[in-house]
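Reading a protein record of the kind used here takes only a little practice. To see the layout at work, look at the sequence and tokens printed below.
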Amino acid sequence: MILMDVQMPVMDGLEATRRIKADPRGSETAIIVLSASAMNEERRLVLESGADGFLPKPCREDDLLETMRVFLKIVYDYDETDAAEDELVAGLPVLSAERLGQLPRDVLEDLRDATLNGNKKLLNDLILKLREGNDDGCADGVQDLANKYQYESLAQLLEEACSL
């Protein structure tokens, strides 16, 4: 499986997809195109290039894993978690709207706006501001979601926190 970005230097992802699919060695390779543009016209062009699928960016981890499952015909084996593990995710405290709601209103709104706009640079700057304000727990939680491009989840938490 190849995850192909549409925007690339030298040759765009659609042309690269056409060339790979035209070669007998690449015809059996699943190609999933990633693009920040989720417009119907973009999707049509992607599929016309010979790509097998399309994922909008930022790509949610669950969507990527499901796409891999379908195209690679794999089965995931999940471990069960207990309540203690739910409180810490990969060693990070679970981020909640209540916890975020304790942040200064202007910082909270700036975080929300940066997340909704997908502005990773500004989001990183705001996370640094949280660290400087000695709120490492919130900073770590927001950073973890931002690093995983889980903007939808982060935006939802920030919206809830803003309404508290």
